[in-house]
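pinging the channel bc i need a second pair of eyes. not urgent but kinda urgent?? the chain im working w is below, pasted from the shared doc
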Amino acid sequence: MKNSSVAAFLIGFLVTSSTATCAELDVQVTGFSSDVGQARILLFREQAGYRGEIDAERIASIPVRKGKATWFAEGLSEGFYSIIAHHDTDANGELDRPLFNLPLEPYGYSNGAWTSFGLPDWDAVAFEITTSPARQVVHIRLNAFAALGQMLLIGVPSLLAIFGTLALFRRRPAQTA
């Protein structure tokens, strides 16, 4: 009888410990302008993870297909989480920030939160994962300052080329017949 109660205790312990980490999360990232590169999804547990005080709970690199990326995470503990996702266009595993620490690649946060400077508040990005599957849709977009910078990098040389060509044509003397 004593062995059977030890066995029952162990079975009960294993069952309860396995249910403590049975939470699931289904993430869909939208807003990709192309299927080049990959979606990079960082899942943070609690506010300490979101603020960078502890490492991300999970990091996933997912292929982009038809402007979307889908990721399913299993075996998560119940609690509060947040997501930061970005379009890793060059597949280097990082959010590129070449000038003034402004992201050059499109990015987004859980719950549709958004800010052009810094991180949104924890309350805006936090969501709870319980035993039933949680679902998050993250829409990525380009920071307005980065978009302006890209337009200037592309637009100014293009305008100079157009006006330079027009100036050359205007200086050519007209041919007379």
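so The chain has two domains: 21-141, 144-172. and The longest strand covers residues 79-88. — does that match what u expected or am i reading it wrong
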